[in-house]
Write a structure and sequence with these properties.
279 residues, 2 strands, rod-shaped, single chain, mainly alpha, two-stranded parallel sheet
C-alpha cells in the first residue's frame, strides 16, 4: 500500500512537470555562435581565393538584344519596302488619272464651237483671246505629258523584252533539268517561270495602255496645233463673225462653209512634238 502511494505521487509529479514544459527553443550557447562564426569565415575565405566565375547570362543577354534588334530591323525594312511599293503604285495611278483628265480637258476645248462662244460673249476679242490662251496652255501641258508618256512607253517595252528573254532562258534551263531528271530543281524553276509570266502580263498591259494614251494625246495635239494656226491666220474674220471659205486647218472651227481651199502644209511630226510657242 505504501508503495502504491509512492507510485501515485511520482506519476503526479511527472504530469505536473510535463504540463509546465515550455515550447520555446533554448537559447544557443556562446560556443555554438562562435562555431558558426568560424564556419562563415571559412566559407568567405574559400570564396576570396576562388576566381570569379563568368556570367553566361550577360553574354546571352547581348546576343538576345542583338537578335531582337536585327529582327526589328528586318521588320522595319520590310515595312519601308511596302511603303515604297505602295507609293510607286499610287504615283502611277495618280499619273494615269492626270493623263486621262488632261485628255478630257483638251478634248473639250477642241470640241468647243468658236462661233457660239463669241456670240455668247459681249467681248468677242476678249473671249477669243481667253480661249486661245487656254487652249495653248493646255496644249503645252499636254506636250510635256506626251514626252513623259513616250519615255515611259519606251521603258516599259524594254522591260517587256527583258522579261521575255529572262523567261525564255529559264524555260531552256527547265528543259535541261528535265532531261537530266533533276525534277526537284526543275520544280523550283517552274515557280520562277510562273512569277515571270505574271510580271510580264502586268508589264504588257501597262505598256499598251501607255502607248494608247500617248497616241491619243499626240493626235489631239496635232488638232490643237491646227486650230491655233487657223485662229491665228483668220483672227479678224473670226472676231467680225464673217463666214468665209474654208481655209487651212479651219474645218473644226464651225465658222467656215465648205469649199475648195488650199490645204494646210502643217504636217504631223514623227516624234509627236509640236511647237506652240509661236501660235
Amino acid at each position: 500500500m505504501r508503495h502504491r502511494y509512492l507510485s501515485v505521487i511520482i506519476a503526479c509529479a511527472l504530469c505536473v512537470s510535463g504540463c509546465s514544459r515550455s515550447d520555446k527553443q533554448p537559447m544557443p550557447s556562446v560556443k555554438n555562435a562562435k562555431n558558426a562564426t568560424i564556419f562563415s569565415e571559412y566559407i568567405l575565405q574559400i570564396l576570396r581565393n576562388r576566381p570569379d566565375l563568368p556570367r553566361p547570362t550577360a553574354s546571352l543577354g547581348v546576343h538576345i538584344a542583338n537578335y531582337s534588334s536585327q529582327h526589328y530591323k528586318q521588320q522595319i525594312k520590310g515595312a519601308l519596302r511596302a511603303v515604297d511599293l505602295l507609293s510607286t503604285h499610287l504615283s502611277e495611278e495618280r499619273s494615269v488619272d492626270d493623263d486621262l483628265a488632261l485628255l478630257q480637258t483638251l478634248g473639250g476645248q477642241l470640241q468647243m464651237n468658236i462661233t457660239d462662244l463669241l456670240n455668247a460673249s459681249a467681248d468677242r476679242i476678249g473671249a477669243l483671246n481667253q480661249y486661245t490662251e487656254t487652249l495653248k496652255a493646255t496644249a503645252q501641258e499636254a506636250q510635256r505629258a506626251l514626252a513623259r508618256l513616250r519615255s515611259r512607253e519606251e521603258y516599259l517595252f524594254t522591260e517587256v523584252r527583258s522579261k521575255k528573254k529572262q523567261g525564255s532562258q529559264i524555260e531552256k534551263e527547265i528543259d535541261k533539268l528535265m532531261d537530266a531528271q533533276d525534277f526537284s530543281a526543275a520544280g523550283s524553276k517552274q515557280a520562277d517561270i510562273r512569277r515571270i509570266r505574271i510580271e510580264l502580263a502586268e508589264l504588257e498591259v501597262k505598256a499598251e495602255q501607255t502607248k494608247s494614251t500617248a497616241d491619243t494625246l499626240e493626235d489631239m495635239l496635232f488638232f490643237a496645233a491646227e486650230r491655233l494656226e487657223a485662229i491665228s491666220q483668220n483672227r479678224e474674220a473670226i472676231i467680225a463673225g464673217i463666214t468665209v471659205i474654208e481655209l487651212p486647218g479651219t474645218k473644226e472651227l464651225g465658222i467656215f462653209e465648205e469649199g475648195k481651199g488650199k490645204r494646210s502644209s502643217f504636217g504631223k511630226p514623227k516624234n509627236g512634238l509640236l511647237d506652240f510657242s509661236d501660235l
